[in-house]
Here is the input.
Amino acid sequence: MELVEKRLILSYTDDEGSITIENYIKKGGYKALRKALEMRPEEIIEEVKKSGLRGRGGAGFPTGQKWSFVPNDGNEHYLVINADEGEPGTFKDREILEKAPHLLIEGAIISAYAIKANEGFIYLRAEYMDAFKILKDAIIEAYNNSLLGKNILGSNFSFDLHLYPGAGAYICGEETALLNSLEGKRGIPRLKPPFPAIKGLYGKPTVVNNVETIANIPIIINNGGDWYKKLGTEKSTGTKIFTISGAVKEPKVCEFELGKITFRQLIEYAGGIREGSKLVGVIPGGLSAPILINDEIDIPATYEDCSLKNTMLGSGAVIVIDDKIPLAKIIRRSIQFFAFESCGWCTPCRDGLPWATRILRKIEVGNGRREDLDTLYEICNYIKGKTFCALGEGAQWILRVYIEKFGEKILTQG
Ligand SMILES: Cc1cc2nc3c(=O)[nH]c(=O)nc-3n(C[C@H](O)[C@H](O)[C@H](O)COP(=O)(O)O)c2cc1C
Ligand code: SF4
Here is the structure.
């Protein structure tokens, strides 16, 4: 069966892309904004709720619902776009940032109008220097065309959009650490609740959304929430951008209707597994998502199907693992990443992950014993449910699943 993409967002990145405002307008750009400005903010939130859109940053929280938590208090509100894209294996937002910056800007203006924010920030991954320049130029173009700033397109709505590069910390992708970083503080998470929609940037109600989430907004406003909801499954509506990397012949960025493709088909779409190797498993949603083994990957790539298999769709970063790299090395590299990126705020994560990394290194060089797996499992128990944020929790989750699914093979598969 031929696999056909449904390119809603990525259609804006085709051909010459939509880097310039002229190209974007030729592709129908900024029509949704004109339509949105004729609507009441509450109607936009209703449309986004109807669409069933779930956040594309990892957790999959319903976007319209998040927006409706912002109090209607007449106070200052902020919109923050999470463009940190730090999850290993994820390179989908980059495609939008570098090739369709105006789609993101249009989505930002509509979203800000809906939540009654007059100021917004794009928090950009430090390493995305090309994206920084492209976005900066696009923001200037938008200001020059009365799409940003005071009285947008002659309306009563004013909105300023700022571009803020991070400094390269994975934890600053976590929404509350991101807000601390934006405020010029140390990038460590905040206690939740209160959630940012109630108390966010500078203590004001703030919506934090991922780049891909915001890029969906003009598409939903142009076509309607009901139209969007018809795509995908009941719990995973619309399309999703997937990045396929690892042991495949042609790593890819692609967009499919949710529920219409399985993980095995995604591997096929990326040219299949590389020559001369055997599939070991697939990490379905970025490094923080527990691995699916070979006989588990015939499930549709949706939020609900992943959840049934004790993993998550996360950022849609599909990392394919084959038998050419020793399992112990893969697990050690993964846990070492989280240990390195731990912000150090809470003890189980700060101390537990380096401890696990040391044991995994011992296994990797061939000195592992059965008891080491027991100790690793104990470390997972020591971290589980006792960390301040999801970084430590996610790291112990993937380690636990590796041990449960592969057991002593981790000691021997070198
Ligand atoms: C350790 C950690 C790193 C994260 N990194 C990112 C990131 O790079 N980009 C992102 O959009 N969300 C990231 N998130 C999720 C955000 O906290 C937040 O849920 C998301 O930005 C909300 O947007 P959404 O509802 O549109 O998905 C991260 C979460 C954690 C715990
Ligand atoms: S779990 Fe890790 S990253 Fe999160 S607050 Fe604790 S030390 Fe920091």
User: Anything to note?
Assistant: The pocket of iron/sulfur cluster (ligand 2) is lined by residues 171, 189, 342-346, 349-350, 387-389, 391-392 (CB under 6 Å).
